[in-house]
Automatic annotation (TrEMBL):
PROSITE patterns, sorted: ABC_TRANSPORTER_1, ABC_TRANSPORTER_2
Coiled-coil region(s): none
Keyword hit for ATP-binding: yes
Protein name: ABC transporter ATP-binding protein
UniProt domain ABC transporter: residue ranges: 22-275
Location within or outside the cell: Cell membrane
Major location (coarse): membrane
Superkingdom per UniProt: Bacteria
Similarity comment text for this entry: Belongs to the ABC transporter superfamily.
Any GO CC annotation of this UniProt entry: plasma membrane
Molecular-function GO term, any one: ATP hydrolysis activity
Amino acid sequence: MSTLPLTTADHEEYLRTHTPVLSASSISVTYHVQPPVRAVQNVDLVLNRGEILGLAGESGCGKSTLAYGINRLLKPPATLTSGDVTFHDRDGTDIAVTQLDGDDLRAFRWNKISMVFQGAMNALNPVLSVRAQLHDVFKTHRPNMSKKAKEEASRKLLEIVGVDPERINAFAHELSGGMRQRVMIAMALALNPQVMIMDEPTTALDVVVQREILREIMKLREQLDFAVIFITHDLPLLLEISDRIAIMREGRIVELNTAQSIYENPQHEYAKKLLGSFPALFGDEGAFVRGQSEEVRR
Ligand SMILES: Nc1ncnc2c1ncn2[C@@H]1O[C@H](COP(=O)(O)OP(=O)(O)OP(=O)(O)O)[C@@H](O)[C@H]1O
């Protein structure tokens, strides 16, 4: 049984003026442990072309599990017990993501949807240079690319994410946390995906570096036209950067709305409670938080 998330007329209007890139319906995921954990229950979610969709909710509510389910990255003991995911490609074809397997699934992943994982900055291989790791992405997915083209594309990617291309020779331990995270984002961008899922991509970084990287992501998605599902329990941050926000609780999306509406006119009791737990959002300081949003958007 599906319970529809609360929303407002503004949101309906928003949906009418945007085009979906990814549609997920009735997604349910269970971890088969004792007792079983029904981590995601009958979730419907549409991601529109070029938008940033924030996924908020307290730790353990199922945000990462939903993202893994959508991108077919679940591993035992988790299984997708129900649901369909359809990717609406730029060229007009629809891809039934839940039906893909083997080589088709591997080709789809990273080409169409890429993911920046929680703690990604620690995911670089310590014994390979940045060059080797960037080249590897192309070697796997673009086997016909020449060495020269791989080098050019890798340097260009570093430039795009704000890392000096000369650092292509560096190893992970020679880079700051922010730089390592930028390299991970460069790898996620390498194949020009239409969707990027970012799971707490900046939580481990200090606030100034976080802001810089987020500003970069917002700029990039305008330049490169990809949509983002951005997962965090930092609701004030989502209010700044997202077009829409889905609020999850106990495996379900309880409210789905434009960021503006969630900020000004939250519908669900839990959304109100979440907003209320960030006192700085209200009063003069609250105005400052939204004010920054305009600055970040520029
Ligand atoms: N490998 C696992 N085995 C059993 N249960 C799991 C496993 N991984 C996650 N869970 C459970 O699934 C539920 C959803 O977890 P999930 O990590 O998706 O939440 P989250 O909202 O992303 O949390 P966080 O913000 O802490 O990452 C939680 O109850 C969690 O304990």
